[in-house]
Amino acid sequence: MRRDASSLEALLANPRIWRGSSTERPASGLSSGYAKLDRHLPGGGWPLHALTEIFTEQYGVGELQLLMPALARLGAEDPAAAFGEPAWIAWVAPPFEPYPPALLEWGLNLSRLLIVRPKDDGDILWSAEQALASGTCAAVLLWPPDLSDQDSRRLQLAAEKGESWAVAFRPDTARHASSAAALRIAMRADEAGTHLDIFKSRGGRPVTLHDIFAG
Q: What predicted TM-score, i.e. pTM, was given to this entire model?
């Protein structure tokens, strides 16, 4: 009986085990740069070493603006202790040509920006997975045409292995599909501004945020 108790104590001491009665806050996240959003994200920011999914009906509703403050911070901070050399921010299969002047205005370090254009759709997931697991990328953004539950688990595991942040942009029609992502957000824009529906947040609750870029 004592041996069983010792085994249980060892198991509960594992930092990967979440205890329902625990009052500890989740590990600190990467601030999004938007106080209204950070207040509703466990850890006060984007979940690092994990997969985030952002759903939109069409591109250009502010999905990149939502990430820019965090990406700029990743590029500005000295990552030597974590990566051994300046870390990359990889964009895999973006459906547009990144505009350097706009990225510079947001404060991104263009010398550490890596644009990956796979030959076919089948290589998008592979390229993102390799970049995430490499340990040399602070963040990997990808635009897959489709993402199965198994694919999302592969990305999640790769992000954990490489201690990187994975962000997948997906069509709004896929928001009801199952996924291993730690955070899933749907974005929409209208005359009143840009709104976020956080419908899955590991350790948090669903919430709708209106006019996220205001103030």
A: 0.84
